[in-house]
Description:
Chain A is mainly alpha-helical. Chain A has helices at 6-22, 24-53, 67-74, 89-97, 109-114, 126-147, 152-158, 177-210, 213-218, 223-256, 266-269, 273-293, 297-316, 318-323, 328-333, 340-350, 355-383, 393-401; strands spanning 56-62, 80-84, 103-107, 119-121. The mean pLDDT of chain A is 80.
Amino acid sequence: xxxxxxxxxxxxxxxxxxxxxxxxxxxxxxxxxxxxxxxxxxxxxxxxxxxxxxxxxxxxxxxxxxxxxxxxxxxxxxxxxxxxxxxxxxxxxxxxxxxxxxxxxxxxxxxxxxxxxxxxxxxxxxxxxxxxxxxxxxxxxxxxxxxxxxxxxxxxxxxxxxxxxxxxxxxxxxxxxxxxxxxxxxxxxxxxxxxxxxxxxxxxxxxxxxxxxxxxxxxxxxxxxxxxxxxxxxxxxxxxxxxxxxxxxxxxxxxxxxxxxxxxxxxxxxxxxxxxxxxxxxxxxxxxxxxxxxxxxxxxxxxxxxxxxxxxxxxxxxxxxxxxxxxxxxxxxxxxxxxxxxxxxxxxxxxxxxxxxxxxxxxxxxxxxxxxxxxxxxxxxxxxxxxxxxxxxxxxxxxxxxxxxxxx
Amino acid sequence: xxxxxxxxxxxxxxxxxxxxxxxxxxxxxxxxxxxxxxxxxxxxxxxxxxxxxxxxxxxxxxxxxxxxxxxxxxxxxxxxxxxxxxxxxxxxxxxxxxxxxxxxxxxxxxxxxxxxxxxxxxxxxxxxxxxxxxxxxxxxxxxxxxxxxxxxxxxxxxxxxxxxxxxxxxxxxxxxxxxxxxxxxxxxxxxxxxxxxxxxxxxxxxxxxxxxxxxxxxxxxxxxxxxxxxxxxxxxxxxxxxxxxxxxxxxxxxxxxxxxxxxxxxxxxxxxxxxxxxxxxxxxxxxxxxxxxxxxxxxxxxxxxxxxxxx
Lengths: 408, 311
């Protein structure tokens, strides 16, 4: 790779940044993505709250005689109100069809013994069923124990909920939740910051190739300076976008919860940051390189998908990696360039990674970034003059086999 | 005068096709060198190698700025490529300033000079408009300015007159002459030889990657053995004897007009014979245009130039 001229790189970066930031697409996407997230999150929250707030009146045909009074007392204060239905099952069905009842339960000895309680409804509503299940299961369990002869005190003792709480006996106080959350946040930010600006970067390169401006640019600066400048320009754009999103997210979240409870500090992000920065550079150099080989945006969008998917492959096996973060194959994956950022961020979330492993993986990642920028600059320089067609594998093989001239 | 650009034995192949084969020339300060040849002759490949955009297979390109020989200093070279384009969605002034800063011009200076150029080009009102809003002719003017805004010592113009209307052609010619008068070296590549002929001091003719002719335009013309004799005569004159004269080749015959090529060494004798036998209204004896010299020279080498190549 030719020597990088940083003043030239910064000129390109500044130009790319100012052009992209003034583009209407930037404003639209920057506002649209959080808006969609807020709306979808808000909708979920609203549904949850509506479900929780929903009062459910359920008629009970108590064929055992003692079930209704026990359950009604047990469910006092819950969203479910039981009504003692004096009529027959046929009358209840008629009332249900006429809309006079939301639903009714039939409690007989067989149902209580088997634990399969029939709940008659006109239409099954999942949210209602969920509320009924969570409240009724505990009450019915208590009723069955009472039937077995437990005293109220014994019953209260048995019904105390059981939880498992980890108690560290070493010197440390255990892993704070923030340490696990920070790498996951960084992984999410990496994906978001690489996705849109990466796509804009790639299409920008394709467009420069199509409208021939690239020849003027290469008559002024080296292909490496141009490529690095573009990557840094779009990096700054990503950073701005992420800052806007995170700030908006923090602002909105702080209205609903005490963020201090998370215990997150900037220091929690430090181990993840090198993977974020180098991961971004790796993805961006891949996007720029692919843009230089493409003729049309359509081909670029397919390649864009590939560039996004390959480094994200470790995310498809999150549970397996999280269960065995130090397994041999996971450690190997942590040293294979395209997979390093995602794998290491996942591992950092669930385990303490040895310092030597972080150093080796970061070294390999840094070397692969340099390699891909070098490779990209060569492909960029040769491919970008192929205005009317996409580069073929044969072209790539030929140009990579060529000796590089100095100063190019 | 000391050359600013010296190209020696430049060779480039694409696969089995040799696009440029042993090309050598130089351009000095205050000189316009025309790199001429038909489409596909290898002109753009030569220029791209000079600009470092393509790497030559062999040969050298040397630049001499301020008396010091060295490799390409991109800040001192202006380039208008054949394949043209700028950022459509960016504003005219921003584009000019950006490209000039890449060439090492300070931002404020570039801005001031860009505004001056836009004023001169009658584009000042469009300085803050997006390029895509401008007409094609206006865009070409902006592209031309982008190549020379940073006041380069060497200007490389690849087919600068392509697709230009006559008014803009004249405008560009004026600017190119101005660059020469300012002491800048200009390498002008074109297949439109009539335009090159008007501007250039020296010529490098290229065909199929190889040199056809090279030298001062005057020397090339003087050295070409044939002359064009254009005779207009009064009705009733018999000019059929002309075809039988040694060294004469009839090119075109129209009513009361005949155009000949004369390859003899005694043009004065020819003119005397014409004057004796024909009632001449008008007669001229000139060297043929560059285009004809090129075609004849290529033919003499046993090669052909397709009509589409000179279009």
